[in-house]
């Protein structure tokens, strides 16, 4: 428990620093973080049998994030035309491998990018949704994501009875799930008093999206790990598991929240 607390403390400090130290630190940090998450994913996939090309996947993941990040700084959409060529290399490199299931490898290579890189590109893009870098939005996202996880855990531990999805996550309960939503809504209302870019109702909506889709992302990652019989995605965070274990809440919530922010910002 002590090790978990120490790791959690430094993890929070690093995460806050990544958002508060400016746009270049923000971009570089989440580029590296997304690549580490992709590496974890590929390692888990290899344990289950398929053999996606590690270096091709990581290289494509690097360029996918970089292209979308560059669009945040230099909006033009021209760089996006590079992506089909890059992603096509995944098919080409498989021609030179003596694999009995080439399209399985290709599918998992694409899935790795979709599962790890794409959510981080949406999270990164949130900070630029208004045109210029604004740390309020990614910081608020992280705070609400942590509020949901903490609230669900505390309420579930205190009064959880009815299982939410026992097949994939036996410890999650409906009581904890609802508690997480309520606590996240409270944090959203508090944030709306200090960050006035959006009305309070929009902050509450964002909190609801994070609670609902963050929990779904957690369940999806649990389903993935159970399918290959592993408990944690890695061991880089002592007492907490791997990076994917800490960021599974972003899997669905980051794209949904970005889409919502884009719509209300450009309405």
UniProtKB/TrEMBL annotation:
PROSITE patterns with a match to the protein in the record: CDS (PS01315)
GO molecular function, one term: phosphatidate cytidylyltransferase activity
GO cellular component: plasma membrane
EC number: 2.7.7.41
Keyword Cell wall biogenesis/degradation: no
Membrane topology term: Multi-pass membrane protein
Subcellular location: Cell membrane
Reaction(s) this enzyme catalyzes, per UniProt: a 1,2-diacyl-sn-glycero-3-phosphate + CTP + H(+) = a CDP-1,2-diacyl-sn-glycerol + diphosphate
GO terms for biological process, alphabetical: CDP-diacylglycerol biosynthetic process
Secretion signal, residue range per the UniProt entry: none
Transmembrane found in the keyword field: yes
Classification via InterPro entries: PC_trans (IPR000374)
Coiled coil regions, renumbered to chain: none
Pathway: Lipid metabolism; Phospholipid metabolism; CDP-diacylglycerol biosynthesis; CDP-diacylglycerol from sn-glycerol 3-phosphate: step 3/3
Enzyme kind, highest EC tier: transferase
Sorted UniProt keywords: Cell membrane, Lipid biosynthesis, Lipid metabolism, Membrane, Nucleotidyltransferase, Phospholipid biosynthesis, Phospholipid metabolism, Transferase, Transmembrane, Transmembrane helix
Residues annotated as transmembrane: 6-33, 54-73, 79-96, 103-123, 135-155, 176-196, 202-220
Subcellular location, principal: membrane
Family: Belongs to the CDS family.
PANTHER family in the record: PHOSPHATIDATE CYTIDYLYLTRANSFERASE
Protein name: Phosphatidate cytidylyltransferase
Originating organism: Mucilaginibacter limnophilus
């Amino acid at each position: 428990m002590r090790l978990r607390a120490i790791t959690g403390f430094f993890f929070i400090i690093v995460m806050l620093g990544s958002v508060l130290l400016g746009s270049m630190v923000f971009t570089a940090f989440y580029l590296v973080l997304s690549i580490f998450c992709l590496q974890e994913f590929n390692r888990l996939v290899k344990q289950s049998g398929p053999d996606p090309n590690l270096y091709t996947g990581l290289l494509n993941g690097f360029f996918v994030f970089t292209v979308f990040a560059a669009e945040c700084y230099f909006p033009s959409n021209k760089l996006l035309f590079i992506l089909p060529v890059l992603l096509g290399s995944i098919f080409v490199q498989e021609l030179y491998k003596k694999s009995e299931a080439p399209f399985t490898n290709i599918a998992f290579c694409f899935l790795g990018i979709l599962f790890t890189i794409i959510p981080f590109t949406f999270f990164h893009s949130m900070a630029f949704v208004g045109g210029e870098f604004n740390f309020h939005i990614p910081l608020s996202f992280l705070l609400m994501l942590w509020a949901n996880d903490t609230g669900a855990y505390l309420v579930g531990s205190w009064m959880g009875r009815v299982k939410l999805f026992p097949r994939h996550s036996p410890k999650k309960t409906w009581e904890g799930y609802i508690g997480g939503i309520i606590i996240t809504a409270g944090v959203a209302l508090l944030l709306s008093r200090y960050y006035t870019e959006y009305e309070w109702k929009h902050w509450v909506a964002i909190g609801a999206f994070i609670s609902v889709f963050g929990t779904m992302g957690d369940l999806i990652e649990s389903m993935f790990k159970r399918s290959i019989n592993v408990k944690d995605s890695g061991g880089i965070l002592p007492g907490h598991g791997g990076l994917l274990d800490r960021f599974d809440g972003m899997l669905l919530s980051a794209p949904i929240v970005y889409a919502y922010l884009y719509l209300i910002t450009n309405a």
